[in-house]
Amino acid sequence: MNRILDGLNVLELGSGSVAASIAGVVLADAGARVIKVEPPDGDRLRVDNPSGFLVWNRGKDSTIADLRTADGQDRLRDLARGADVVIEGFAPGVTDQWDVGADTLRSINPALVHLSITGFGKTGPYAALKSYDSLVAAKAGLWARGSWGHRDGPIMFPVPWASFGAAMQSVAGIIGALLVREKTGRGQALDSTLVAGLDPIDYFVSTIVQLMAKKGEAASGDSRSLTGASRFGVLLATRDGRFIQTSTMLPHQGRALCEVAGIGEVVAKDPRFGGLPSFANPEDAQEWEDLLMEAFRAKDLDHWLPLLQASPDIAFEVAVTSEEGLDHPQIVHNGDVITVDDPRLGEVREIGPVGHFSQTPIVIERSAPELGSATEGFGAHDFPKGGREAPPHPFAGITVVEFGYFYAMPYATAMLAALGARVIKIEDGKGDPHRNSFGPEVASTKTTAGKESVSIDLKSAEGRAIAQSIIAKADVFLTGFRSGVADKMGLGYDELRELNPRLLYVHAAGYGTDGPYANRALYAQAAQSVAGSFGRQVGYWTDPAQSDGFSVLELQAVVMPHLNQLVDGDSNAALTLLAALSLGLYHQQRTGEGQFLGTSMIGGNAWAYSDDFCSYAGKPRTPLCDSEYYGTSALDRLYEAAGDSWVALTVRSDAEFAALCNAMGLEADDRFSTAPKRTEHDDDLVDLLGKAFAEKPAAEWESTLSAARVGCVEVNLLGQPVFTSFDPVLRETGLTVTVEHPVYGEIVRTAPPVSFSETPGRVAPPCVRGQHNRSILSELGYSDGDVTKFEELDVITAPA
Question: What is the model's pTM?
């Protein structure tokens, strides 16, 4: 079987690192031999997150090496001699102290690509913070839910978004470095961070808060307050207590939902609703939502489901758990759920591959390894000889043509552009609707960064000819539209494959290329629902028993405020697509062969929830937050500190708990002497720690406990967008940069998601629609006169 990464040797180290595990499994799925280096008592995830360990380590081998000992260090150095890639998930400086850091291993093997994953990088005051998902999210402001939360203070959601994002970005970084190595023969040192892994979740608000600050207005990270006169996502409740997440990004989708609800005629006659899903004021928006709520609450899910399914313009999904998502008809059809036989547990249903490749399919056959099961190291193999100059950026020289709107697919290519690819966005005369979703060229600040835009009428023969000429010279073509749309524009797979046989053709759809849901509209909130976001983020309140007998008013007052989720449906899909796209490019750039790659938003979201998106006999329950979202336990929780401040605490081991008690001056208590006892007396421990934390401000606790190597941070209550936009430490450590926005001037954004020791990423501003019409057509041989004529004929549309 032809597998993309056949012959590639990967070492993965970092006990308890979710990010390293996920990055490693993506490479293992694609054919690399991945040896997981574990301490004598095994990777901490084997106990802390057994389902995650099972899924994130399938197809790998396990070897034991105590890196705190000379023998273990010698073992690792010996393995590194035959490795192509090392993925390291330790805290900054740890492996250097053991003499097995990047510099040491690369001196042994100059062809080695060494990637280190940390929380906030290796320099600056945040580098010393524990790289746990809850802590990074708290410090970055992700738990600050603003004025629309159901209570005061921050809210925790127990999903490893930071690690998942960093993992997928790391895969792309590794592939980029390997492509550079094909040219130069040299490896390099790479760094990725959990805080960069969180950046895709901030879709547009960081731009808004900066524009507000420029106007002298108070910057707020609360996206609900910034979009209060819109209803792009409406959550509905049926009579039997089931929840339906709808997404209405476009007017015809909102009208279709009204027709199904039986309020179409009422809405059509009322001028206040003429622009739905956008309204003149929040009051009109709320009244429209109230009409929908009253209609859906009147009947059970069994009544509504066939009506909704019969209308393909309605983007919706029913709230489910991750395990229930395994049985979604389109998930099953796509092959996004597979069955792997585990020697101990039997059949395990779990997430499928990151992408579906026509010529190099990903086949997953082995479950996670037993501890120490590897009987041999890497076999001898040749490294690339190189001899050519290094490119300026990892993906420099690769041209990607994008045909799609909104966020999921376009942000994946924006991240690839930040790693050096040339991305050309094809738009019509009106442009991507995302450009104006939240103000002129606001939402598109991130999705068009580093790209070129050409504005073409693909309904005209001349426009199709121009687009095909661009794609004929490209390496990749991506479309995010539903099946059939690109074909109607002369951009179907068969037509473009004949034009450019080496083309990697990517269909990054909502539901997939074909199947029972393929022709349905889909957006972020509904996409994440398939993967189980409701069960994972707000599971307590989706139980029908919690809303039994409630009126619509009672639902809105009591239950709905508890169901405000973090919207991750687009960001999860973008990150998974980035990893799949990079794998496809690796195959194409090395072989010159093209192929079809299919991905879906629902599959990408299932990857983000993959530690619970699985089922097997005896599966333990995934920890969920309490009903008020303070945390999953006393030792993974938010606590209020003195002075209206909050801390996030994460303690993972007995040693860390002992250090916590010592640093806080807590006396020994037999109730908490062992992990099982702490679980048994969790409420008592919450009370004890709550009283202690209330005695000092959060900043003081962060300083004291971090110095004792205990995971504790002051919760950022201003929100992630404000943190990204204005935090001085991020600027000083290079985690954020500035660009010149073509409309709004200087804007702060995150740096490229992975840093490279030799071929850095690329920082470039966003583009406006049609900005590069003339330069791109000039490359194709058209004169200025030709372009002017095309503009007169509306074949192309000049930029505004």
Answer: 0.96
